[in-house]
Amino acid sequence: MNRFNNLSEDAKVVYLLSLSDLIIDKISKSEGFEVAVESLEKAWEWLKFKNIDADSLYVYLENIAETDIMTYMQLDDDKDNEKVWICIGNALTYTIWEAYQYEKEKYLPQTIESVDYQTVESFITNFEKVYENNSISDKLLYFLEENYPKNADKRVDLISIKTFIDESIEK
User: Fold this and answer.
1) Rg for the chain, CA atoms, rounded
2) Considering the entire predicted model, what is its pTM?
3) Phi, psi of 5 (to 5 degrees)
4) Residue 62, helix vs strand vs coil
5) Would you place residue 113 in the very low, low, confident or very high pLDDT band (cuts 50, 70, 90)?
6) Which residues are paired to 13 by β-bridges?
7) Are 112 and 96 spatial neighbours (Cβ–Cβ below 8 Å)?
8) How far is residue 169's CA from residue 95's CA, in Å, rounded to a whole number?
9) Three-state secondary-structure class, residue 18
């Protein structure tokens, strides 16, 4: 967890979203898969352009129509799928929290307000239970820590990160 805290704000989001992308196909047969895919796409879009407000991202996590990550997570009875849903939910929750921080919003939805180190720990624990190449999470964390440390003004290069992940998976 300390290493995660050593990352720049954007690198933290990249870490969680990148690992989520590696496991999302495991729920491809689940109801709500399309919502999960779209929510990660919107989270990436926010990261790249900061053009989506936090409230709009939050609708993917929880909404009155119950077409959200939290609802689909509860509907899926498969225990392995549940771990994937938890990862996606945690990654999205953390991204939304960062979006609210970026907007300097003082009042956050309760789910977002409770983001802390346990959100990330839960993500990592569940990721390691569903992804075969567990070393990728450590390798990616090390890569991000070396290239995008905390308080660095350097913009995250998503192409180099994708290349790093692809090369790490092939090994």
Assistant:
1) 15
2) 0.96
3) -70, -15
4) coil
5) very high
6) none
7) yes
8) 24
9) helix
